[in-house]
Automatic annotation (TrEMBL), chain A:
Its main location: membrane. It is a multi-pass membrane protein. Keywords: Cell membrane, Membrane, Transmembrane, Transmembrane helix, Transport. It is found in: Cell membrane. Residues 62-280 form the ABC transmembrane type-1 domain. It comes from Ammoniphilus resinae. This is Phosphate transport system permease protein PstA.
UniProtKB/TrEMBL annotation, chain B:
InterPro entries: MetI-like, MetI-like_sf, Phosphate_PstC, Phosphate_Transport_Permease. Keywords: Cell membrane, Membrane, Phosphate transport, Transmembrane, Transmembrane helix, Transport. This is Phosphate transport system permease protein. It holds the Pfam family BPD_transp_1. NCBIfam families: phosphate_pstC. Residues 78-289 form the ABC transmembrane type-1 domain. PANTHER family: ABC TRANSPORTER PERMEASE PROTEIN YQGH-RELATED, PHOSPHATE TRANSPORT SYSTEM PERMEASE PROTEIN PST. It comes from Ammoniphilus resinae. The chain crosses the membrane at residues 20-40, 74-97, 118-139, 151-176, 197-220, 270-292. Part of the binding-protein-dependent transport system for phosphate; probably responsible for the translocation of the substrate across the membrane. It is a multi-pass membrane protein. It is found in: Cell membrane. Belongs to the binding-protein-dependent transport system permease family. CysTW subfamily.
């Protein structure tokens, strides 16, 4: 066989591979959205799930997912900013910095079930928070923090050197330079990364089984008392999220319309991830235009 | 000359920033150490407090932790984890790398406009969704075409393949893009065909380390995935006889039993030992990646 023919065959094979992937991936998306969208309506996303009978919704689960996301972000953002700034601006080239980088690598590649086990032991048992939103939020922080630190560090490092040196030359201190010069320029990148990371935590399930729990108490959305067990805002109540709900109804199989509820919930998750992705791109571009002269 | 108070003031402001950021950074180290300490102390208790033999745990095939005496052979779980990981990598690596080359070298226009956004989106799709699709589409398909229950090692491999494909593809795209343009053009100018250039210059030389890292990261993801695998693999603790027999993995064993066992019991601790194995494998994957990236730079 001559080289020309080989080249042509190889090109054909590459096309075939790409087609297979496109078919599988598009098929998957289409399948989820097609089946799920038939199920999603106002009743589905606002009402509580049913036990043993059909027709339940995922209202509390959707709320739990969002609330958990907000709490996790409240913990992760300041810590992530701090860690990222340290690595980009202060970290000397030494063994300690190497250990920090190794830690980031380990934390970001740990299986989520292992993070869940760690959360079970530290937050649920040792701290005594039980299966609760707070335990779940801290477990999710373990995943999210390394991502955030990386995003912040990369965004800060991509700020042009001249801007930083101009600030130093004006006699402005390092910390003030970071706050007033570097962070505003890096902000679009940081926010884009944060929103993408948020999409990832939104669908996390394995780490939450043993931390946020697999049940959701009856919630009274008029009750805003943080310490009342029926209040949706109480951080010490157990909170089953959308992703956990999909898993639970499939493994328990108690309701007759498992398939429909899981279809709807899957589509909700995928749509949310989609919205996060689009929002991250759009918002980052918009902010960049607002903050710079371009 | 600035007054002493002013100097003190600026030192104080400067110090706050450094202290705050240093504390945040040290939290990363503390968390990592805490995870290793907690998981290891519980995981090792199986062998030191409950008297299970390490050899039995690693190579024993009988898993009956509630029997009298309990049997703690975790090999079926370990084997299951390795088979699904290697199996899915074998399927996903050629497809993912081939697609990455298609996206960068053969049709960058389609690659960037259509495939890149879809693949980025799929990286973010929750694993439970993959598991659920596997459960509702793949399992009936396998049952109808091969008989049996459908829940099987093969189902686990296929679900994981689809799950790690986006990861491997997008990392491979990055690796292929890093190949210097001059190198490719020199190869084409010397009369090499596109295939020869792709195979000899891109795959075998310039981006080999990057491609290997993409595969290993995909494998790490597959090895640690819990729910998607648990939903389709059948959860039968026995050494699998064929690709179509139901099996179990370390992650699915932990997922299913951690909630139903009494903390402190030998059974419960054995599950922590399985968690420790997962942790150790993560560290091994990281070491492999570091080793490859060092070799790649040299």
């Amino acid at each position: 066989m001559n080289t020309k023919a080989k080249d042509r065959i190889a090109t054909g094979v590459f096309y075939a591979m790409a087609m297979i992937i496109v078919a599988v991936l598009f098929g998957l998306l289409f399948y989820i959205l097609f089946h799920g969208l038939q199920r999603i309506d106002l009743q589905f996303i606002t009402s509580s799930p049913e036990f043993m009978k059909a027709g339940g919704g995922v209202g509390p689960q959707l709320f739990n997912s969002l609330y958990l996301l907000v709490l996790t972000m409240l913990i992760t953002l300041p810590l992530g900013l701090g860690g990222g700034i340290y690595l980009a601006e202060y970290a000397p080239k030494n063994k300690v910095t190497d250990v920090i980088r190794l830690s980031i690598e380990v934390l970001s590649s740990l299986p989520s079930i292992v993070v869940g086990l760690f959360g079970l032991m530290l937050f649920v048992n040792t701290m005594g928070w039980g299966y609760s939103i707070l335990s779940g939020a801290f477990a999710l922080t373990v995943f999210n923090l390394p991502l955030m630190v990386r995003v912040v560090e990369e965004s800060l490092s991509s700020v042009p050197r001249e801007q930083k040196e101009a600030s130093f030359a004006l006699g402005i201190t390092h910390w003030a330079t970071i706050r007033k010069v570097l962070l505003p320029v890096a902000l679009p990148g940081i926010l884009t990364g944060a929103i993408l990371a948020a999409g990832r935590i939104f669908g996390e399930a394995a780490a939450l089984l043993f931390t946020a729990g697999m049940s959701s108490p009856n919630l009274n959305f008029a009750n805003w008392n943080l310490l009342d067990p029926a209040s949706p805002l109480n951080p010490f109540r157990p909170a089953e999220t959308l992703a956990v709900h999909i898993w639970k109804i499939n493994s328990e199989g108690l309701i007759p319309d498992v398939r429909e509820v899981a279809d709807g919930a899957s589509a909700l998750l995928v749509i949310t991830v989609l919205v996060f992705n689009i929002a991250a791109r759009w918002f980052g571009k918009w902010l960049y235009r607002r903050l710079t002269a371009s | 000359m600035s007054s002493p108070t002013k100097q003190h003031d600026s030192w104080w402001k400067e110090g706050v920033g450094k202290v705050l950021t240093t504390v945040s950074a040290s939290i990363l180290i503390l968390t990592t150490l805490a995870i290793i300490y907690f998981i290891a102390s519980k995981g090792l208790a199986t062998f030191f407090s409950n008297g299970v033999s390490l050899v039995e745990f690693l190579i024993g095939t009988e898993w009956n932790p509630e029997g009298a005496p309990g049997q703690f052979g975790a090999l079926p779980f370990i084997l299951g984890s390795f088979i699904v990981t290697v199996g899915s990598a074998l399927l996903a690596a050629p497809l993912g790398i081939g697609t990455a080359i298609f996206m960068t070298e053969i049709s960058p226009r389609i690659g960037q406009k259509v495939m890149q956004p879809v693949i980025e989106l799929l990286v973010g799709i929750p694993s439970v969704v993959y598991g659920f699709i596997g459960l509702s589409v793949l399992i009936p398909f396998l049952r109808n075409s091969f008989g049996g229950v459908g829940f099987s090692i093969l189902a686990g491999i296929l679900v994981l393949t689809v799950m790690i494909l986006p990861t491997i593809t997008s990392l491979s795209v990055d690796a292929v893009k890093r190949v210097p343009r001059d190198l490719k053009e020199a190869s084409l100018a010397l009369g090499a065909t596109r295939w020869q250039t792709i195979w000899n210059i891109i795959v075998l030389r310039s981006s080999l380390p990057g491609l290997l890292m993409a595969i290993i990261l995909g494998m790490a993801r597959a090895f640690g995935e819990a729910l998607a695998v648990q939903m389709v693999i059948g959860n039968t603790t026995a050494i699998p006889k064929s690709l179509l027999s139901p099996s179990n993995t370390l992650t699915s064993g932990i997922t299913l039993n951690m909630g139903n066992t009494i903390p402190g019991s030998a059974y419960n601790n054995a599950l922590w030992s399985m968690g420790l194995l997962l942790l150790i494998m993560t560290l091994i994957f990281i070491l492999l990646i570091r080793w490859i990236s060092k070799r790649g730079q040299a």
